[in-house]
């Protein structure tokens, strides 16, 4: 069974930065893509950023993440990352690592407030 473990969440002020990490229990080449998703209270889970395994240069970003967030991966460590800059209160959510839209981590909380 695939396990994904996130880390790196926390609380920051508006304009701050956080880096999230996700470690997979299997070789990430098992997947077609991996991504970061988030869910705020009362809202549906939404895609934040996605990176394809076959070609790491193929990425997707939500409009809200473009220009502020960067997804990357380390094949040797079976990890993906999300660098988040210029965080705003609307970025407050639980962030999940996902693989192929089927396997999920337990989530890590990101809170942005002054």
Unreliable sequence segments? none
Biggest sheet: strands, sense, closure?
A: 7 strands, mixed
> What is the beta-strand fraction?
over 45%
Q: Which sequence of SSEs, written as H and E, runs from N to C?
A: EEEEEEEEEEE
Distance between the termini: 40 Å
Q: State the shape.
A: globular
Supply the number of helical segments: 0
The overall average pLDDT, rounded, is 96
Please describe what this structure looks like.
By secondary structure, this protein is mostly beta strands. The protein has no helices and 11 strands. The chain has strands spanning 4-7, 10-12, 18-24, 33-39, 46-52, 59-61, 69-74, 79-84, 93-99, 103-104, 108-112. Strands 2, 4, 5, 6, 9, 10 and 11 form a 7-stranded mixed β-sheet that branches. Strands 1-3-8-7 form a 4-stranded antiparallel β-sheet, with no helix packed on it. The mean pLDDT is 96.
Compact description:
The protein has 114 residues and is mainly β.
How do the helices and strands line up, and which of them pair or pack?
Layout lengths: L3 E4 L2 E3 L5 E7 L8 E7 L6 E7 L6 E3 L7 E6 L4 E6 L8 E7 L3 E2 L3 E5 L2
Parallel strand pairs: 2-11
Antiparallel strand pairs: 1-3, 3-8, 4-5, 4-9, 5-6, 7-8, 9-10, 9-11
Annotation keywords:
114 residues, mainly beta, four-stranded antiparallel sheet, 11 strands, 0% helix
């Amino acid at each position: 069974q695939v396990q994904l473990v996130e880390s790196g969440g926390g609380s920051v002020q508006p304009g701050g930065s956080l880096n999230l990490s996700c470690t997979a229990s299997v070789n990430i080449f098992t997947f077609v893509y991996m991504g970061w998703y988030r869910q705020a209270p009362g809202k549906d889970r939404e895609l934040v950023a996605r990176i394809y395994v076959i070609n790491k240069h193929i990425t997707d970003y939500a409009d809200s993440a473009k220009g502020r967030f960067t997804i990357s991966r380390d094949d040797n460590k079976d990890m993906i990352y999300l660098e988040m800059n210029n965080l705003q209160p609307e970025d407050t959510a639980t962030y999940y690592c996902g693989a192929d839209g089927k396997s999920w981590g337990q989530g890590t909380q990101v809170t942005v407030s002054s």
